[in-house]
Specification:
Layout (H helix, E strand, L loop, with lengths): L3 E3 L4 E3 L2 H8 L5 E6 L2 E6 L2 E6 L5 E5 L2 H10 L4 E2 L10 E5 L5 H13 L4 H10 L3
Length: 128
């Protein structure tokens, strides 16, 4: 799926290629396919995953803040299935995310999985 332009708002809409572009720059991150789903890991820890139909993305997010995130924009964000509520995980519709917002969410999820020295070095080279 390529990035496309939403002509109503003139903002870039995120797609699978954008997720790959972001994750390819992250140290220690790698892509795997598990049960027909594309996931990104650091070691054994998954920090982002696409739905099977590639319309939504799940990503690492603090449990104590996810309800507020979902309430802030329920058309964009949603809670994971009941079995995954025990994890630091939240989901979003790719079609509702801008590319910059997608990058921020994926990088923040990755930061939760790597040592501080790794993410601080990355942020020095890629300031936000």
């Amino acid at each position: 799926m390529k990035t496309r332009i939403d002509r109503r708002e003139w903002t870039a809409v995120a797609g699978v290629a954008d997720v790959r572009a972001v994750t390819s720059t992250l140290p220690r991150a790698y892509e795997v396919v598990v049960r027909d789903r594309i996931k990104w890991r650091v070691g054994a820890i998954v920090f982002a995953a696409l739905s099977r139909d590639e319309t939504s993305i799940g990503f690492g997010y603090p449990k104590d803040a996810r309800d507020a995130l979902v309430e802030s924009d329920p058309a964009k964000f949603f809670l994971p299935p009941a079995g995954d509520l025990r994890y630091n995980w939240t989901c979003a519709w790719l079609s509702q995310l801008g590319v910059d917002e997608l990058e921020e969410l994926v990088v923040d999820a990755w930061i939760m999985t790597v040592p501080k020295k790794v993410w601080t070095a990355y942020l020095e080279l890629h300031p936000r």
